[in-house]
Amino acid sequence: MKIEDAINTVCPWSGKPISADSLTRYRGAVVGFCNPGCRDKFEQAVTAFDAALSDVGLEDGVSSEA
């Protein structure tokens, strides 16, 4: 991943500029963070959130029930 591919220029946690060593991919997009700690916090939060959605039958915020 390259910093040029990031969809953001500031860290969503801190508001500081993103760093090339702190990138992750989320739903196909490269997201940047100011440091690896913020990136790791995001990855943990997303994992927990996605698991919670799955537990209640939602994926991507859309009900799987018709």
Spatial order of the strands forming the largest sheet: 1-2
How many domain regions? 1
Distance between the terminal alpha carbons, to the nearest Å? Answer: 38 Å
Number of alpha- plus pi-helical segments: 1
Number of strands: 4
Which overall shape is indicated by the principal axes computed on the Cα atoms? elongated
Approximately what portion of the residues adopt beta-strand conformation?
Answer: 15-25%
Helix content: 25-40%
Radius of gyration: 14 Å
Question: What is the average per-residue confidence, as pLDDT, rounded to a whole number?
Answer: 89
Which regions have little confidence, pLDDT < 50, spanning 5+ residues?
none
Largest sheet descriptor: 2 strands, antiparallel
What order do the helices and strands follow?
Answer: EEHEE
Q: Which structural class is indicated by helix and strand composition?
A: alpha+beta
Describe what you observe in this structure:
- By secondary structure, the protein is of the alpha+beta class.
- The chain has one domain.
- The chain has one helix spanning 36-55; strands spanning 23-26, 29-32, 58-59, 62-63.
- The strands form two sheets. The protein has a two-stranded antiparallel sheet with strand order 1-2. It has a two-stranded antiparallel sheet with strand order 3-4.
- The chain is elongated, with a radius of gyration of 14 Å.
- The chain starts with 22 loop residues before the first strand and ends with a strand.
